[in-house]
């Protein structure tokens, strides 16, 4: 795959007005500590929004979560990283989480070592010992110091021997301003520089049920092990984000949690993970629905597609693990027919074979995504639209309905990404669903929207539109 790597500490503003403002060389601040000590709560407190999932259950954060944080007292932002917790008793998943955490700690310019104001555990002791070699860039943040009465007990953490220590309550906001000042005093922006993109990133969301290969595809696209990959379903919990460049096109890719049927979602962590995945649709341009080619389709796939198309997002079906399918003639055509039957009115959506693990089909997938995005952002000239619409109606007159016959007056494109059109007619209530589908299919096939959903609104016409269509 022809791609240009971007510095790992690049960032993107979460402010919609600054979507084209990028940074390189930003200082990185990592939040570290054992599970359930309040790292994600502090992460959200500094950002003033709930980006990381917070739950009393230990070990909720697995993949490191990044976000730009900019204090009112600073001219430039900082890259803030929430890491997974370190456990003494670890399984294979915990080992992977710990490895990711230590990687980000090593790369960070400043480490906020979170401890509980009251409870000191063997895990704290192990973490403190391992952090010793990074002592010069460590600040001890004693969390859950909800009031001065806890400060006396919190001073016991001075025995760790670190130079900088501060007491805070991430949940209640106590001493957060003092912590921000301490962080800023240790930041070096000498290597940081802003730059503007000529155009916005193409924002790509990877969705699907658990264990279909979403994180494997994310890592393949980014060229690094950003997201933890495991055979255990539900590995990804937060939305993991990254940027890459492919053939001159900038992408932001979002790896989401696997979505199961509502009846099977029993834990609050999974509930919030699924909700984060759904909300990702508000940020995405194109959705890649990952389908396990061996296991086939599920009702949950249909739900994901409906959510995406209701928002006007482009959808590409990726049949992952295709390398495990039998090499029988016409296998792909048979699977494609089954998908198109399963999804009913979505015959327009591209369907591609893929092996995220081996990298087979990734270039074709990206090429298709770019084509879909081009259609999502395409604007049709009003004069051309009206000429075509007039020809469609004249060559295929609308049938008489119980409410009479309508007359076409005027058409206009009302938005791109999502693509919407408005047709002004004399009697909108006389336009049946069949004729509406006919018009939408004509828009797709003859105006260059063959791969995306199109929304068509019928509006009551007024006399002035007759004058507009003549102009």
List keywords for this structure.
471 residues, alpha/beta, GMP Synthetase, Chain A, domain 3, 3 domains, seven-stranded mixed beta sheet, 13 helices, 31% helix
Structure, described:
This protein has helices at residues 39-47, 92-107, 122-131, 148-154, 176-185, 214-222, 268-279, 299-310, 331-342, 362-376, 382-395, 433-447, 464-470, and strands at residues 3-4, 11-12, 21-24, 28-32, 65-69, 78-82, 110-116, 138-143, 164-167, 193-196, 202-207, 240-246, 249-255, 286-292, 314-320, 351-353, 408-415, 420-425, 455-460. The model is unreliable at 1-20, 52-61, 227-237, 258-273 and 464-469 (pLDDT under 50). It is built from 13 helices and 19 strands. It has 471 residues and is an alpha/beta fold. α11 (382-395) packs across α12. Strands 1-12-13-11-14-15-16 form a 7-stranded mixed β-sheet, with helices on both faces. A 6-stranded mixed β-sheet has the order 5-6-4-7-8-9, sandwiched between helices. Strands 2-3-10 form a 3-stranded antiparallel β-sheet, with no helix packed on it. The chain has 3 domains: 26-191, Rossmann fold (3-Layer(aba) Sandwich), CATH 3.40.50; 196-375, Rossmann fold, CATH 3.40.50; 382-470, GMP Synthetase, Chain A, domain 3. It is elongated.
